[in-house]
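Input (Integrase):
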Amino acid sequence: MRTKNRLSAKAAASLGAGKFADGGGLWLVKRENGGAQWVLRVTVHGRRREMGLGTYPAVSLADARREADKARALVRDDVDPIKAREKARRDAERNLHTLADIAADAFESRKAELKDDGVAGRWLSPLNIHVLPKLGRVPVVEIDQIDIRDTLKPIWHDKAHTARKALNRLGLCLKHAAALGLDVDLQAPEKARALLGRQRHETTHIPAMPWREVPAFYQSLTDGTVTHLALRLLILTGLRSAPIRFAHVDQIEGNVWTIPPELVKGRKGATQAFRVPLSEEAVWVIEDAKRHAREGYLFPSVRKGVISDATMSRHMERLGMDYRPHGFRSSFRDWIAETTSTPNDVAETAIGHVSGGNVERAYKRTDFLEQRHALHTRWANHLTAKAGKVVRIG
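Output:
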């Protein structure tokens, strides 16, 4: 009797319920209810294993024999065919992750690093707007430099900064996918950069009002509204908009404003808050703002939360100005450089910058609070037309 290929297609179709050997461990199992399936019995690593090869007749006799041959070949190589099939299935499922899936997972893993856990959505926005509409449904393992080039080409020159951010985020997503075990091309973003070429666009700095013009603008902010008071405090302190927008009465004690480190850009990883010395003018602005306070926040929005990032900018736009609130930091820094003899460390700390390397900062524990208080007082005097001669700070 033949040890293999005992069954024929015609016989397999006519058999009743029972177990029928085709040889070499391949069996056709037919049930009373009419169902049937192929089963392969093998011995691997000293264990007897039964491996399903599919239902009959969806899987024909010829197909079952081919799958059985593949499994027997694995057994000869001392590989468990059931485990090998499970691994292949897991790999196939894993490699079906789309770029949209990976981007969402990468964002979740990085939320703790982002301001306010990334609630503003800025980390994902370059991808959501310019990449995912085209590549979001593509399995991440299939994305190559051609896909990336074709996606970013429309904005590569006209929206250069945004395009670079999108390319950077794509690179992070691919690294995240690689960490998950996906077979991605980590070099695809750099290859795409080479294909896209050098950008024509030059980054333009945020327009800053010349420091000599700032007093006139400051003194025009007289209506006592949230917007006017927020702009006044921003100009007086030289801070970015986030600490101003989220200013809370609990952060202020006397003439010192203590800002949580997560609200001060450039101080990532800091374990200490940032102290801001307040001039008499700044204290007066804060006291005036308290009448608007809601839930302790000095600058609430009309509906809920605090004023938006664009509120102060829109005020300047309505006045027909090209300048923007962020530019007042440069105005303040230029005024320091041109009218005082302030040491660089004090000047940089005054605008919330961290100066020096890690070793230098480890030994330099001071935040120059007294020197900065004198500097901010002098700046307030300039803004309110009380400025005197050039003064040395430090």
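The first strand starts at residue 18 and ends at 23.
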